[in-house]
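Protocol step 6 of 9: fold each sequence in the batch and record its structure tokens directly after the sequence line. For illustration, a two-sequence batch is reproduced in full.

Sequence one:
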Amino acid sequence: MERLRAARPEEARALTALVLRSKAHWGYDAQFLASCAAELTLRPDEVTARRVVVAQDGRGAVVGLASLEGAGVRARLGLLFVEPAAIGRGVGRLLYRDVLRRATALGVGRLLIDADPHAAGFYRAMGAVAGPGGPEGLVRFEVAPVALAGWARAWTGGARSVHVGNVAEFNAQFADASLDREQLAAHHYAALAAFYSPEPAALVLPKRVPAGWAALVGRQLGWGEVEVYDGLAESGPGLSRAVRARPALVERLTGAGLPLVPWGLTEPFGRLAGRPWRPDELRHESKSASHALFGRVLAGGGHPGIRLPAQWRAATRRAAARMLARRAAVGAGSVLKSEYGVGGSGVTVVTPERLRAAGGARALLRRLPRGPLLVEEYVPGPAAGEPGGDLRDLTYDGFVDGAGRVHEVGAAVMDVADGGYRGATVGPGVVPAGTEGPLLAFGSAVGRELAAAGYRGWFDVDFVSDGAGGLAPTETNLRLTGPAIAFMVAARLDALRGAGHLVRIADRVDLGARLPDAQLDELCGELARACARLGAVFVPAIPTAAFEPAPWLGVLVAAHSRQVLDAAEALVRTEALAVGRPFTDGPA
């Protein structure tokens, strides 16, 4: 394991020799190397001034160096060279990330990199963005070093944390009739526990995960060692209880005093974490309660462009059928909702056309899960192909800290089909400023209401847009969310690779064949390398469904531009579907 330290002036000659060996690795002839010698030479009096840091291997041998030169708004990565025998071991990545960390501490706004053409792929993979200018024969890159976002530091108090993937446990307390008894889908989704904060110390998971998965995610996100405790509750919703049944594990997880972060609050988690359980905290998880909360916020004024769809409670299924039929008769669409639901479960959009196709309201209701029903006014969006169609479903994410302060995280665009959530994209410019401002203001106001009601933890507010610049809030979620995961990863990557990451989470990427763990690890490694060549980051988010009868993978992709982000997602989806072709295609 390599470690970093400041270089010493008396090492200047040896470091110069390392630099020249590293440069020669790319096949340059002696004449060219001689022409570069002056600019690649380190003098003893320069070592400190140029802020040179070296990497040492486990035996104490120096295997790389990097310099951070200049200060203020703009600085330069002057040297970054690795001993040829150590290339490919992650030394360059370690040194590069250290330069960005030091640049952030110095307040550097822009870091310039003039790279050897042979190293351009490395810098692109590390997140640097190519630009114009630079000396002849070199490739100019820039990066904007930033510290971890303030909200991300506040979320766990700046500490690494223990992540408890209690998705099924959270869902079960609301008796969502649309979810299977064993909560198998929730156990897959619990793999997102890897991303409940920007840097975990330990993961606690109900299902067993592939052995290589956490290591790959850790490399992509620059984590140190992360402990993984998996396979603790392969079926059913009892993860926290399963942990509490193992006293040695409880001591391991709680003994260091690190914060425990769940998907959502539950009584069993409260017992595990030593947190007082207040079930009334979660009352606004109810869709009718959140609707009433939105009404209170809007009654106070100050939120132009936000309108609340009308909502009615149907006492019986027959009453719901009559209500849907009456609205359809005058050409009005409706949204039929269960009182509780996750990821769009229990939500059905009912247009007059759909009602006719189903054979009437009663016939439609017979196909839906039983339970309390809400009928809500449908807010039409832009027609297919009209501007704004890709901004139909939006969300606000934030959290209330232990002192009751609301922290704004941001706005995201969700991918929703027929009421079902499929993923989200976060990052600068994803939501236009004219829409983002009102959305953030309303979301923060909801957060203040939640805080006043006693809630502490993560929350989101979902919206639909009407195609004319208006927004309609539809529900709150008092837990972590898919967009929350994307925000966590964006914050981590910004701190590792420079500001401005766009991050997309795709809940389901279909695989062309069922993949055992070793083959899945191989595929994910190949996808990570292929995306890096584009300048993007690939992170396998949900690996546990790769051997299901209909196999799939949840993924995160990130990049500094929308074009590269879209290209990375397309590459991942294409390659994931192609994995079975050698076995399923017939002879040529």
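Sequence two, same batch, same settings:
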Amino acid sequence: MTITAGTAHRPPTEAVEEPRQATVVPPPVPTPEPPKRRPGQRIVAARAALRPRFRSTVPARLRLLRAATVLLAVALGTLLLVAGLAAHGTWDAVADRDAPRTTSAAGLDLALNDMDAQAANILLSSGNGGTGELTTPHAKAVTLYGDARREIGHDLRTLAAAAQGDRTDEKTVESITDNFAEYQELIGRALENDRRAGGKPDAIADYRHATDLLRDSLLPDARKLVSSNDTAFDSRYTAARSALSAQLVAVLALGLPLLAVLGVVQWYLARRFRRNLNPALLAATVCALAAVVLGTQLLSSTATHLKVARHDAFDSVVALSRARAIAYDANADESRYLLDPQRRTRYADSFLAKSQELYGIKGATLSTYAAGLAATWQDYRADATGPRFTGEFRRELDNITFPGERAAADKTVDAYAVYERDDRKIRALLVAGEEQQAVEFCMGWEAGTSNAHFGAWMTALDQVTDINRAHFTSSVGEGRSELSGRLPWACGLLCAAMALAALGLRPRLAEFR
């Protein structure tokens, strides 16, 4: 065996490690951010992405038109439903709250005047301590006094309930209630003094305090309630009319596009599918058209009935109610004039002022008023356009609306002229020293006496009021009836239009499944 020198025990050569080089990782290349889009650009991009899906195919177009039909019909139905419910609420407020409050306040004004007038009549007709009593006038005055007092109690309870939540009206009703209690105490004391012999001067003094309280506090507060409630009624009316006008515009703004969409669907089907007519879509169009017509009629008729109820009828009711209250106060001034010699000038001036409130004649005095009334009334009957007189009667005559109202209003003024002539006769008798005859003529109820003529005047006034009150009631009833009759039909027709439109499109969409 050959042994090579130097190789037998030589250790294995160690592997020499070469130095490692660090791996260099290149930095990540930043990905450029997409440019920010403006909101308008995003909307355009979204539309562009959706366009192929929703508009490029026939089914997509049909579904889009169907969705537009449904949305417009639902929006229109919702609008009509909301408008109908609001109109129902308006009628409820008008008939059950606003009008009764105003008439109750006017009734309170009238009853206060009537009670004071009857108190004066009781004192005037009672004689002196029971002697020289005018039996029929006295008994009549006592009965009417009790009726007026009960009516005041009823009206105060009604107005107190109605005023809850309105602090101003609540304070007014509280003031009337407190002052009325004091007024009744004064009148009761006057009547008690009148029943004893020689007590007439004390009775008249107590009555003066009572009638001053009436004039200074009770009547101003009662008329404040009339004005407050009537103003609230008018504000509600104005707001309701404005809302109805806006709702009518909105119905047309939704109804016309709905009809247009249905027309487009009909045209598209005829053009794309070579069909001239789609019966279901035609029926849907007819239903939608009928619903739009019913909706517009519903809102316009509600506005018309509301105008008739508020302005044509109730404005006259308020004017005539004020006229009646003023008439009773003027009639009381006649009794006060005879009862209290110390205040005759004051009561004569008050009577003239109330006459001017009823039928105002410029520059008239108590001695010239009756002649001026006859002349201006004759001129008015010949030509009603001239501004010859003012007052509550003129307000009514300028608002003649209903059949029979003109004749009844003319009759009222004629009866008023007779009553005014009677007043001059009473004053003439008193000047002539015939005081007892003046009292008997003023308080008598026989034909031809002042009270009989006053009753005829009030009867004529009531006839005009009843005509307007009846039309107010009928307008409210017709307005409610039309809402109940037309609103369900309009909403039902819109539902039918949606169903028929879907039914008409269904076969066409089925062709693409």
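Proceed to step 7 once all outputs are recorded. Observation for sequence two: The mean pLDDT is 86.
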